[in-house]
Amino acid sequence: ARPEAAPLNLAGIELRFGGVRAIDGVDLEVRPGQVHGLIGPNGSGKTTTLNVICGYYEPQQGRMALGAAPLPAGMPQKRAGLGIARTFQTPRIIGEATVLQNVMVGGSIQGSSSFFATLLALPRPRAEEKTIEAQARLALAAVGLEGLAEARADRLQHSELRFVEIARALMLRPAFLLLDEPAAGLSAEEIRRLGALIQAVARQGTGVLLVEHHADLIFDICDHVTVLNLGRVLASGTPADIRSHKEVVSAYLGA
Ligand code: ADP
Fold first, then answer.
1. Measured in angstroms, how far is the CA atom of residue 59 from the centroid of ligand 1?
2. Ligand 1 mutation pick, 14, 48, 50, max ligand atoms within 8 A of CB
3. Residue 119 in contact with ligand 1 by CB distance below 6 A
4. Strands 8-17, 84-86: pairing kind
5. Which residues of the chain have a pLDDT value below 50?
6. Which range marks the domain in which residue 156 is found?
7. Ligand 1 center from residue 47 Cα (angstroms)
8. Does some domain include residue 200?
9. Which residues of 146-172 are buried (b: 16+ CB within 10 A; e: fewer)?
10. Which of 8, 22, 89, 181 sees the fewest Cβ atoms within 10 Å?
11. Would 59 be classed as within a structural domain?
């Protein structure tokens, strides 16, 4: 069972690539039901932080935990099994597949039961496939793309693919959703829609970690903001705290 209501905690996380300290002692707490913004200049360690949480990289120092339970080391699939889902800076989409199929992939990630059902040739997989398809249609409706379910994914605009990726991540019913610059390339209207969607997801109890350059979106929808600089936490607090933080304003927000 998932510890649904436990926060995701990072304490003293360090990750070096050779001589480069990509993250250098990061502490972070993402709470269920909250939107947590992660901002900072290019190269400050934001994407690396997401990669560490997802299990793509093992940190050399520090602890990660869901509540009191340490996150097991290793594979991204295991993190997905714990309910940690993500999207990428550049959407990772199978162009020749339909939009619906791309979203359904998110449902099969958790499907260890269908894995064994297939091996044992039980009649279950078809029923599960139908359920996954129904859920994928709901996920597409949630992001406003139900009308494009049967379209080939490579016919979609870049901005639409960002929403397809979010729909795929929602298939996990994630306890934590990590978004890497979801507003990049979106119109003002699409950003408003994205913001409303992220807040609705958080209201369902999901903890959202939002890496984003779009400062208005961060300050509009976040409950908490952490600012990274040179792989370290420069500031952490409410949007109001961060907006009035002297070093943040001079180092990053550029007033
Ligand atoms: P941000 O997302 O804030 O722009 P990143 O997390 O991508 O920053 O990068 C932080 C630092 O780590 C940068 O100096 C970057 O060059 C370095 N870095 C990130 N990934 C790698 C990698 N796979 N190999 C070597 N250096 C990396």
1. 13
2. 48
3. no
4. unpaired
5. 1-3, 110-116, 118, 255
6. 84-173
7. 7
8. no
9. eebbeeebeebeebbbbbbbbbbbbbb
10. 89
11. yes
pLDDT tens for each residue of 59-72: 999 999 998 888 87
Q: Is residue 202 part of a domain?
A: no
The residue type found at 11 is A
Q: What is the residue whose two structure tokens read 């044992």?
A: 120
pLDDT of residue 120: 57
Give the count of domains, the chain.
Answer: 2
Task: Report pTM.
Answer: 0.90
Which domain-ending residue is among 173, 200, 229?
173
3-class state of residue 235 by DSSP: strand
Whether 193 maps to a domain, the answer reads: no
With H, G, I as helix, E, B as strand and everything else as coil, classify residue 73.
coil
Instruction: Compute CA 5 distance to the chain's CA centroid, rounded to the nearest angstrom.
Output: 17
